[in-house]
Design brief:
By secondary structure, this protein is mainly α. The protein has one domain (16-271). Helix content is 65%, strand content 0%. It is built from 14 helices and no strands. Mean pLDDT is 92; it is low at 280-292.
């Protein structure tokens, strides 16, 4: 039974990238991937984000490829380090895509906050151990660095600020939007495709059972019954105890090798994946008037 961590003795202020890499690629790869998937779901519930993703057409018409691109681009700095050529290529692509649209700094900060807060809460609820204080600090420092590489301003200083910002932003901005709902539906359909077709209804129900009331309300999804919600949470906790009993992973679990990443069977170049938009789906002035 595992009782120690690869991160024992590492300094979260200087070794944060290594600490996060150990968590995401060795100790809790499945959990962090699931948590980040739900983090992205939350971003759709902010209409200015979900509607824009719908208007591009990419997240409803090429959902698999956008899932793959997001996973691969975010994995590069974690796998190779922020100073690597791969990380620079990944951030150039990420920034080029984002800068092609009118995206507010607050929306960017919110997305960043979901990557910090949602996994921490997932650990608290479903993992065989919570994040240690040093690991949580390292996660914060890691995503602060991601934010700086994406030119995000006014990044929260610690976990408490990230959490306060996320909760406040969701209270103010979560709302129903037809386009955002279509993006959520397409993503949920993609998630069900990772399992045998006969299991799709159960995967859909299980996924909604893990969503909280504000998220379900924002998408106008039907809330699963209390027994289903309890069984879903219990299944995740049972899995966590099974995982705890297994030997520690020795080989990194990379999204690039994951069966769910299907768009590049012959390999890929980070500098060539993602979208290459030539302009906004809605002119800047028109979008500003619509949001006023």
């Amino acid at each position: 039974m595992r009782t120690s961590s690869r991160n024992h003795g590492l300094d979260p202020e200087t070794d944060y990238a290594e600490i996060y890499r150990n968590l995401a690629l060795y100790e809790f790869p499945w959990d962090i991937n699931q948590a980040l998937s739900f983090a992205l779901f939350r971003t759709y519930a902010v209409p200015s984000i979900g509607r824009l993703l719908y208007e591009t057409g990419e997240f409803t018409e090429r959902t698999q490829q956008r899932y793959d691109d997001t996973a691969l681009l975010l994995e590069a700095p974690m796998q190779y380090g922020f100073g690597s050529t791969q990380a620079r290529d990944a951030f150039r692509r990420i920034n080029a895509m984002h800068h092609s649209y009118d995206i507010s700094n607050d929306d960017m900060r919110y997305v960043l906050a979901t990557f910090v807060v949602v996994p921490k809460r997932w650990f608290d609820d479903y993992c065989w151990r919570p994040l240690s204080r040093d690991e949580l600090t390292a996660v914060v420092r890691y995503y602060q660095s991601v934010g700086r590489h994406m030119n995000i301003k006014d990044i929260p200083a610690d976990y408490a600020e990230f959490e306060d910002f996320l909760d406040s932003y969701e209270r103010q901005h979560f709302a129903y939007d037809d386009g955002a709902r279509k993006v959520a539906d397409a993503t949920l359909e993609l998630l069900t495709s990772f399992y045998p077709r006969v299991a799709a209804p159960a995967v859909d129900l299980f996924s909604r059972a893990l969503m909280d009331e504000p998220l379900l309300t924002a998408f106008r999804y039907r809330r699963p019954s209390l027994p289903v919600r309890r069984m879903s949470a219990a299944a995740l906790r049972a899995r966590s105890q099974l995982t705890r009993a297994l030997p520690a992973r020795r080989k990194a679990k990379l999204m690039a090798d994951d069966y769910r990443v299907r768009s590049y069977p012959n390999g890929f170049e980070l500098s060539r994946i993602g979208t290459f938009p030539t302009g906004c789906p809605v002119p800047h002035a028109e979008r500003s008037r619509a949001q006023a």
